[in-house]
Specification:
The chain is an alpha/beta fold. The chain has helices at residues 2-11, 23-43, 67-81, 96-108, 117-127, 135-140; strands at residues 48-54, 85-91, 111-114.
Protein backbone atom coordinates (compact mmCIF):
# COMPACT_ATOMS: atom_id res chain seq x y z
CA UNK A 1 0.00 0.00 0.00
CA UNK A 2 1.03 3.63 -0.33
CA UNK A 3 1.15 3.94 3.45
CA UNK A 4 3.68 1.13 3.68
CA UNK A 5 5.81 2.67 0.95
CA UNK A 6 5.74 6.06 2.68
CA UNK A 7 6.70 4.48 6.01
CA UNK A 8 9.57 2.64 4.31
CA UNK A 9 10.80 5.86 2.71
CA UNK A 10 10.65 7.69 6.03
CA UNK A 11 12.40 4.91 7.94
CA UNK A 12 15.22 4.99 5.39
CA UNK A 13 15.29 8.75 5.39
CA UNK A 14 18.28 10.73 4.36
CA UNK A 15 20.41 11.90 7.23
CA UNK A 16 21.67 15.35 6.47
CA UNK A 17 25.24 16.04 7.46
CA UNK A 18 25.94 18.56 10.16
CA UNK A 19 29.58 18.93 9.15
CA UNK A 20 28.73 19.68 5.49
CA UNK A 21 26.01 22.24 5.77
CA UNK A 22 26.04 23.88 2.38
CA UNK A 23 22.88 23.26 0.43
CA UNK A 24 24.43 21.83 -2.74
CA UNK A 25 25.94 18.93 -0.81
CA UNK A 26 22.61 18.15 0.87
CA UNK A 27 20.72 18.37 -2.42
CA UNK A 28 23.11 15.88 -4.04
CA UNK A 29 22.41 13.41 -1.20
CA UNK A 30 18.69 13.81 -1.81
CA UNK A 31 19.27 13.38 -5.56
CA UNK A 32 21.03 10.04 -5.02
CA UNK A 33 18.16 8.77 -2.87
CA UNK A 34 15.46 9.89 -5.29
CA UNK A 35 17.41 8.40 -8.20
CA UNK A 36 17.17 4.99 -6.50
CA UNK A 37 13.40 5.34 -6.28
CA UNK A 38 12.89 7.00 -9.70
CA UNK A 39 11.83 3.88 -11.66
CA UNK A 40 9.16 3.00 -9.12
CA UNK A 41 7.99 6.60 -8.88
CA UNK A 42 7.68 6.94 -12.65
CA UNK A 43 5.92 3.57 -12.98
CA UNK A 44 3.26 4.70 -10.52
CA UNK A 45 3.13 8.28 -11.82
CA UNK A 46 4.29 9.71 -8.48
CA UNK A 47 6.66 12.53 -7.59
CA UNK A 48 8.68 13.52 -4.56
CA UNK A 49 8.05 17.04 -3.33
CA UNK A 50 11.15 18.83 -2.08
CA UNK A 51 10.50 21.99 -0.10
CA UNK A 52 13.62 24.09 0.12
CA UNK A 53 13.59 26.94 2.63
CA UNK A 54 16.45 29.34 2.08
CA UNK A 55 17.54 32.88 2.78
CA UNK A 56 18.85 32.88 -0.77
CA UNK A 57 22.53 33.44 -0.08
CA UNK A 58 24.44 30.28 -0.90
CA UNK A 59 27.77 29.65 0.77
CA UNK A 60 30.35 26.87 0.77
CA UNK A 61 31.66 25.01 3.84
CA UNK A 62 33.82 27.99 4.77
CA UNK A 63 31.03 30.56 4.47
CA UNK A 64 32.27 32.01 1.16
CA UNK A 65 29.83 33.32 -1.42
CA UNK A 66 30.52 33.67 -5.11
CA UNK A 67 29.58 32.68 -8.61
CA UNK A 68 31.15 29.20 -8.31
CA UNK A 69 29.11 28.45 -5.18
CA UNK A 70 25.96 29.75 -6.81
CA UNK A 71 26.61 27.75 -9.99
CA UNK A 72 27.13 24.58 -7.93
CA UNK A 73 23.82 25.19 -6.18
CA UNK A 74 21.92 25.76 -9.43
CA UNK A 75 23.59 22.66 -10.97
CA UNK A 76 22.45 20.53 -8.04
CA UNK A 77 18.89 21.83 -8.45
CA UNK A 78 19.01 21.15 -12.19
CA UNK A 79 20.11 17.56 -11.58
CA UNK A 80 17.23 17.09 -9.15
CA UNK A 81 14.72 18.60 -11.56
CA UNK A 82 15.46 15.83 -14.10
CA UNK A 83 14.06 13.29 -11.66
CA UNK A 84 10.39 12.78 -10.74
CA UNK A 85 10.37 15.65 -8.24
CA UNK A 86 8.50 18.85 -7.63
CA UNK A 87 10.74 21.53 -6.18
CA UNK A 88 9.25 24.27 -4.03
CA UNK A 89 11.65 27.04 -3.03
CA UNK A 90 10.48 29.12 -0.08
CA UNK A 91 12.43 32.33 0.13
CA UNK A 92 12.86 33.36 3.77
CA UNK A 93 14.41 36.75 3.09
CA UNK A 94 13.46 39.93 1.35
CA UNK A 95 16.65 41.29 -0.14
CA UNK A 96 17.50 41.99 -3.77
CA UNK A 97 20.19 39.29 -4.21
CA UNK A 98 18.01 36.56 -2.75
CA UNK A 99 15.11 37.57 -4.98
CA UNK A 100 17.36 37.56 -8.06
CA UNK A 101 18.59 34.06 -7.20
CA UNK A 102 15.07 32.73 -6.78
CA UNK A 103 13.92 34.35 -10.01
CA UNK A 104 16.85 32.69 -11.77
CA UNK A 105 15.85 29.31 -10.30
CA UNK A 106 12.23 29.91 -11.25
CA UNK A 107 13.16 30.73 -14.86
CA UNK A 108 15.62 27.86 -15.28
CA UNK A 109 13.80 24.98 -13.58
CA UNK A 110 10.35 23.53 -13.40
CA UNK A 111 9.86 24.72 -9.85
CA UNK A 112 7.63 26.86 -7.69
CA UNK A 113 9.25 29.79 -5.91
CA UNK A 114 7.31 31.18 -2.97
CA UNK A 115 8.45 34.62 -1.89
CA UNK A 116 7.54 36.44 1.29
CA UNK A 117 3.91 36.64 2.35
CA UNK A 118 3.42 40.34 1.60
CA UNK A 119 5.01 40.11 -1.85
CA UNK A 120 2.93 37.08 -2.80
CA UNK A 121 -0.26 38.70 -1.47
CA UNK A 122 0.42 41.83 -3.53
CA UNK A 123 1.06 39.80 -6.68
CA UNK A 124 -2.18 37.86 -6.20
CA UNK A 125 -4.08 41.10 -5.54
CA UNK A 126 -2.75 42.67 -8.74
CA UNK A 127 -4.06 39.72 -10.79
CA UNK A 128 -7.14 38.81 -8.72
CA UNK A 129 -8.30 41.68 -6.49
CA UNK A 130 -11.35 39.69 -5.47
CA UNK A 131 -9.22 36.93 -3.88
CA UNK A 132 -7.99 37.24 -0.32
CA UNK A 133 -4.52 35.72 -0.14
CA UNK A 134 -4.40 34.84 3.52
CA UNK A 135 -1.57 33.48 5.60
CA UNK A 136 -3.20 30.03 5.52
CA UNK A 137 -2.98 29.90 1.71
CA UNK A 138 0.61 31.09 1.84
CA UNK A 139 1.58 28.38 4.31
CA UNK A 140 -0.10 25.70 2.20
CA UNK A 141 1.85 26.71 -0.86
Amino acid sequence: TERAIALDMMSNRITLDTDHNHLSHQLRKIERRVKEEAPRLMATNKVVTIVLCTQGRQTDEDGNEGSAVLEDFVDSLEALSKLPVKIVVRLCANDEKATELCNKIDDKLNSVVVFDYWGEAMEVHLHNPWLTYGLGIHRLR
